[in-house]
């Protein structure tokens, strides 16, 4: 199995409803995001996937969130947790690059998206 990973970052504000603690107040993060692609075969050039294609797509998707209040996005249901952000980014990448959707066939697929709120706090959305 091969795996490639790219990363980018974005800054955004949010607050968590249904949470009792300091994160229920409006605050911000400098999010670090990693996208992981896996597959069993490389192309003729020995690559699983072109880094620049994946990186450009990840930057585009995260750019939609950059310098925004994430609570303004309906998809997060007023609770833009790191877990929900990871799933949003995962789904948006697959929407941009449909070939990365996991299928029964061999080939590259988006395996995971990691969202770090801090260096020590990460949420991951992945497929088996």
Describe the fold and architecture:
The protein is elongated. The protein has a four-stranded antiparallel beta sheet with strand order 1-2-3-4, covered by helices on one side. 22% of the residues lie in helices and 33% in strands. Helix 1 (51-63) packs across helix 2. The model has no long low-confidence stretch (mean pLDDT 95). The longest helix has 15 residues, at 82-96. The chain is of the alpha+beta class.
Proportion of residues in extended strands: 25-35%
Which geometry do the CA atoms define?
elongated
Order the strands across the largest sheet as they lie in space: 1-2-3-4
Structural class determined from secondary elements: alpha+beta
Quick tags:
4 strands, four-stranded antiparallel sheet, 128 residues, elongated
Task: Give the gist of this structure.
With 128 residues, the chain is α+β, with helices and mostly antiparallel strands.
How does the SSE layout of this entry go?
Elements: E1 2-14, E2 27-39, H1 51-63, H2 82-96, E3 109-118, E4 121-126
Helix pairs in contact: 1-2
């Amino acid at each position: 199995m091969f795996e490639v990973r790219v990363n980018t970052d974005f800054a955004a504000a949010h607050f968590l409803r249904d949470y009792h603690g300091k994160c229920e107040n409006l605050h911000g993060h400098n999010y670090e995001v990693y996208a992981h692609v896996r597959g069993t075969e490389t192309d003729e050039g020995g690559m699983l996937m072109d880094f620049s294609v994946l990186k450009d797509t990840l930057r585009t998707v995260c750019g939609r969130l950059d310098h925004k209040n994430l609570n303004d996005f309906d998809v997060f249901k007023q609770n833009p947790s790191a877990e929900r952000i990871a799933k949003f980014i995962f789904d948006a990448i697959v929407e941009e690059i449909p070939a990365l959707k996991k299928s029964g066939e061999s080939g590259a697929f988006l395996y995971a998206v990691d969202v770090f709120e801090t260096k020590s706090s990460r949420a991951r959305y992945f497929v088996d």
